[in-house]
Each structure stands twice: as structure tokens, then as C-alpha cells.
Amino acid sequence: MKKTESNEKAGLLKAQMDAERIECLETVAAKLRERVKELTCLYGISQVVSDPDRSFEQKLMQVLMLLPPAWQFPASTYARIVIDGDTFQSPNFQEGKHKQYAEISAMDKNRGMVEIHSAEEGFSSQKNPFLEEEQSLLNNIAGQVALMIERRESEETKSELQEHLVRAARLSEIGRLAAGVAHELNEPLNTILGFAQLVQKTQGLPDTAKEDLKKITDASLQARSIIRELLIFARQSPHCVTAINLNRIVEDELGLLESMGLKSAVEVRRILDPNVPEIVADKSQILQILSNLVVNAIQAMPDGGILTIRTSFDSSDVSLAVEDTGIGMDEDVKDNLFVPFYTTKDVDQGTGLGLAVVHGIVTSHGGRIAVESESGQGSRFIITLPRKPDTIREASKGNDGTG
Fold first, then answer.
1. First vs last Cα of the chain: how many Å apart?
2. Is a pLDDT exceeding 70 seen at residue 168?
3. In whole angstroms, how far apart are CA 184 and each of 176, 187, 325, 355?
4. pLDDT at 344 over 50
5. 132 phi and psi, to 5 degrees?
6. In the chain, at which end, N or C, are there fewer CB atoms within 10 A of the end residue's CB?
């Protein structure tokens, strides 16, 4: 009797142990399946990220498709990625009662987040349908998306730099060609002008001859002006540099600028920083920059508009911005802005040298020029020139508290 009871207890114990062992194996198998799903997801994402034939948006959508199958309840799991305010969602996206997310941090800046929503029924608000490992997976995915953003922006920066280098090289070649042509034309042109002016002093010339000589003189003077502008563009025009204040340049020209604007129904606004420091530059050439930019801006507003002139500065530079509310420019026009003789105006309205000259002056002064424009949205030209050296030292002393 006792032996039978002992055998029954042993059998029950063995059955219990077998059940526990099976349960343990099932738990391990379930965890293993989850890890396989996670690894499959990460592998798929690595393949998507490295695909050069997909756009950034296409990659994000592919990543979203890979996320729900990696979670515990894929049928009721939905994914969403938000980057810089733009939202990307998995198909038939639904917001669930339960959500987990991971922030996307790229270039030391929070750019958005990756979200997982669960619409699984049977979980109370206190219970969580997500596994701890799934949060780790989500953090990893957010890191992969951040790398995608950084790679995209790095490629864009590289592309922009290459375009700037190509444009600079092209302008340099054009500059050398322009300088050579200008020097070759300058001497015979001066000879023509000199003889025409000499003949004009001859007594008893017929009126028709006087008119013809005046036409020759005017055309020669115009050609000489173009040659001077070509030399400025090619940075072969001598400077007469002094310490000048951009605000004073604007104020000195303001009367002329406002009268030009009034004729075209253009309102001229000034936003001048009263503390703007001096620069070392050729005053006549800085006036030429302002004049060319203002004339272009007014011509870009045939039906009137607002012309705004701003000055500002930072620790090393002084900036002059001229912006209009005119017709704007497309990418093709922007790409050719500073090429000599390139113009979108009628033949009798400009030579196409104005902005080429501006570029030459700015570059010869060690400055930079930036253009912001879209078709129908107006244009903004920002000229940045180095501050006068002693004003930089003074600013540095003030910042250090040693002044």
C-alpha cells in the first residue's frame, strides 16, 4: 500500500517536472522566435539603408513596413515615423491605446520620433502589450533612422560644395577670359575715343559730322565702361580702400534709391543696425554693389512692391541684405546669375554684367555673396564682408571682459 502511494507521488512529481520543463522550453522558444523577428527586422533595415537606388522617403516607408512583423502582435501593430514635422505611417495606420516610442536624435538635435501603436484587445490600461526587448529594438531603429538623416544631409552638403567648387572654377575661367579680352580691347578703344574727341575740336565741322562724332564718343565711353566692369569682375581693377560704414553708404544713397522706387511704385524700407562696425573697402565699389542690387530689385517688381535694405553684423563680419517681393528666380537663373553677359532682360535693358561685377567686387574684398529666391516669391541677396580688424579685436576684448 505504501509502495503504491510512493509510486503515485513519484509519478505526479515527474509529470509536474515534465510540464514545467515543457513550459520552460515553450517560453525559451517564444523568446527565441521574438529575437529572430527582431534580428530579421534589423537585417532588413540595414539592407534598406544601404540601398543607393531608393530615395530617403522610400527608405522610410520600407522601414515602416518592416516594423510591425517584428513585434509580439504584428496583426494589431502599427508604426509611425515623424521627422522635422513630416509624418510617415505604415499602411492602414491606427492609433492604439498603448504606444511606445523612441526619439530620433541627429546632429545633436532632436529631429522627431519612431512610434509603435498597439490595437491589441484584452489589455487593460495598466497592462503593457509590449516586451522590454521591443523598446530596445525601437531605440536601435531610431538610431538607424538618425544615421539615415545624417547621411542624407552629409550627401547634400557634399553635393552643394561640389556645385560651389564647379561654379567657382567656371567663374574663375570666365574671369581670366574676360580680363584678357578687356586688356586687348582697351588700347584700341582708347585710341578711337582719343581721336574722336580730337576731331570734335576741329573748327568748321558740318553738323552731321559733329553728330556722328558724338555717337562715336558715346559708344566708346559705353564700351570703356563695360571693359571697366569686366576688369572689376576679373578682380583686376585697383582698389582705393578706406574705413567705411555700411549704414552711411545706405544713407548717402537713400535719396536716389527712394526716388527710383517711387517711380516704380516700390516702397523702400531700411532696417539698419545702429551699431554696425566699419569695414575696409573701396567706397565707390561698395556703392556700385548697392546700386546694382537695388536696380535689379526694382526691375524685379514691375507692378510695385517692397524693397528692404538691412545691415547687421557678428563677431567677424558685416552684412548687407537687399530683398524684394518681386518675381523671384528659378534654379536655372540662379545657377547663371554671376556669369558675365547672362541676362533675362531685353537686349536694350541691360548688359548682364551687373551681378557679375557685384560678385567680382565682393570676392576681391574677401567677402561672400548668398542668394535666396524662388519663382514668384521674391529674392534676397546677402553680402558679407570682413569687419575692420581693430573692431574685431575690440569686440573680442569686450567678450573676454578684458576691455
1. 106
2. no
3. 12, 7, 41, 23
4. yes
5. -60, -40
6. N
